[in-house]
From TrEMBL:
<feature type="domain" description="Serpin">
    <location>
        <begin position="48"/>
        <end position="407"/>
    </location>
</feature>
<protein>
    <submittedName>
        <fullName>Plasma serine protease inhibitor</fullName>
    </submittedName>
</protein>
<dbReference type="GO" id="GO:0005615">
    <property type="term" value="C:extracellular space"/>
</dbReference>
<keyword id="KW-0646">Protease inhibitor</keyword>
<dbReference type="Pfam" id="PF00079">
    <property type="entry name" value="Serpin"/>
</dbReference>
<dbReference type="InterPro" id="IPR036186">
    <property type="entry name" value="Serpin_sf"/>
</dbReference>
<keyword id="KW-0732">Signal</keyword>
<comment type="similarity">
    <text>Belongs to the serpin family.</text>
</comment>
<dbReference type="InterPro" id="IPR023796">
    <property type="entry name" value="Serpin_dom"/>
</dbReference>
<keyword id="KW-0722">Serine protease inhibitor</keyword>
<dbReference type="InterPro" id="IPR042185">
    <property type="entry name" value="Serpin_sf_2"/>
</dbReference>
<dbReference type="GO" id="GO:0004867">
    <property type="term" value="F:serine-type endopeptidase inhibitor activity"/>
</dbReference>
<dbReference type="InterPro" id="IPR000215">
    <property type="entry name" value="Serpin_fam"/>
</dbReference>
<dbReference type="InterPro" id="IPR042178">
    <property type="entry name" value="Serpin_sf_1"/>
</dbReference>
<dbReference type="InterPro" id="IPR023795">
    <property type="entry name" value="Serpin_CS"/>
</dbReference>
<feature type="signal peptide">
    <location>
        <begin position="1"/>
        <end position="19"/>
    </location>
</feature>
Length: 413
């Protein structure tokens, strides 16, 4: 029998934010979480390791995914894994069982989910988990109750003997939870499936200061040295977080959202994309967040909408997580059936960047004062492939991570 670990559906419809925070205000907004979440029992280098695995499998293409959601799905799966299968998952997430009890991992995710699901002004962020199981499959009560307690998971019986009906049940649930933004997460469902685990994240935010739609102009975007495409390029002059990382040969512009999140746009120097991709890690990210200073910039950023869809059973083995996808999988913490394994682990993500905002005229006076102190304003143009992160302030988790190689814009999802 097969566990169809559909797990991940991710959505970020309106990515936007031009902030008004200085570095001290960033630090003020990044309060510590209590208890185990304070020092999350996991390595966030998992995000960058997975990025490199996805990028190497599809060189030259757009990349977009949610490290947070994938981590949550793997942590949930580890609850039912045993022996070497469990060890691989936890070590892949960066947890050393010799140094940190497994309980701390789950407790940190529990507190994280509670924190992220709190209402906040100007930003919608909701995460959730669900378990669909065949009524004839004997699921361990301890597994279901722990999923509900730690991961706030819903649980539903589903007749996988009727693949069409089961698929509709799951897709209807996901569509409802994502306000109709994703209507067909499951495309194929095997009658041999006995369980589907779903994790979703819904993110919607706008820039505090919008780009003017009147300023967008068609400009050349250098997909490669040989290929240039025309894209709608937004532009705006304002105060932005900014730094140059000479070690990694890149420029970083931070654009905060309404609510506690910020988009980081990373522009490698010409010919330095591979250097940046290989050098990114949690230590570098934290250094950037501490070094950020506000600076007057002329920012040129393409409008784009990209989507990523990944079969993680192909990517995660590169991070050492492979046994769970084979006949050697030990998932006896989920069910007493010996021949159960994860057949698929699907992840989908979307992002859209446009001019949307609500405070188009904010801080005009500040702009004038800074201009009087500077003879010229640096001009940062994202007209070649760049990286993008969306970071949550309070938990400092990476909500989304990606690379824009081929910008395209198709309007609202």
């Amino acid at each position: 029998m097969q566990l169809f670990f559909l797990c991940l559906m991710l959505l970020s419809p309106w990515v936007a934010a031009l902030g008004r925070y200085h570095s001290r205000e960033w630090r003020k907004s990044t309060k510590e979480l209590p208890g185990a979440a304070k020092g999350a029992a996991r390595s966030r280098d998992f995000a960058f390791d997975l990025y490199r695995a996805l990028a190497s499998a599809d060189p030259g293409q757009n990349i977009f995914f949610s490290p947070l959601s994938i981590s949550i799905s793997l942590a949930m799966l580890s609850l039912g894994a045993r022996s070497h299968t469990k060890t691989q998952i936890l070590e892949g997430l960066g947890l050393s069982l010799q140094e940190t009890p497994e309980e701390e991992l789950h407790k940190s995710f529990q507190q994280l989910l509670q924190e992220l699901c709190r209402p906040r002004d100007g930003l919608q962020l909701s995460l959730g988990n669900a378990l669909f199981t065949h009524p004839k499959l004997s699921i361990q009560d301890a597994f279901v109750s722990t999923m509900k307690m730690l991961y706030l998971a819903d649980s539903f019986p589903s007749n996988f003997g009727d693949p069409v009906g089961a698929k509709k049940q799951i897709n209807d649930y996901v569509a409802k939870q994502t306000k109709g933004k994703i209507v067909e997460l499951v495309k194929d469902l095997d009658s041999d499936s006995v369980m589907v685990m779903v994790n979703y994240i819904f993110f919607k935010a706008k820039w505090e200061t919008s780009f003017s739609s009147k300023n967008a102009q068609e400009k050349g975007f250098h997909v490669s040295p040989e290929t240039v495409v025309q894209v709608p390029m937004m532009n705006h002059e304002d105060l932005y977080y900014y730094l140059q990382d000479r070690t990694l040969s890149c420029k970083v512009v931070g654009v905060p959202y309404q609510g506690n999140a910020t988009a980081l746009f990373i522009l490698p120097n010409v010919g330095s994309m591979e250097q940046v991709e290989n050098g990114l890690n949690e230590k570098v990210l934290q250094k950037w967040l501490k070094m950020f200073r506000k600076r007057q910039l002329q920012l040129y950023l393409p409008k784009f909408s990209i989507a990523g869809s990944y079969q993680l059973e192909k990517a995660l083995p590169k991070l050492g997580i492979h046994e769970v996808f084979t006949s050697q999988a030990d998932l006896s913490g989920i069910t007493n059936h010996a021949n159960i394994q994860v057949s698929e682990m699907v992840h989908k993500a979307m992002v859209e960047v446009d001019e949307s905002g609500t405070k188009a005229a904010a801080a005009t006076g500040t702009v004038i004062m800074f201009r009087s102190a500077q003879m010229s304003t640096p001009r940062i143009v994202f007209n070649r492939p760049f990286l993008m992160l969306i970071v949550e302030h309070i938990t400092k988790d990476i909500l989304f991570l990606g690379k824009v190689t081929h910008p395209s814009y198709g309007g609202s999802f």
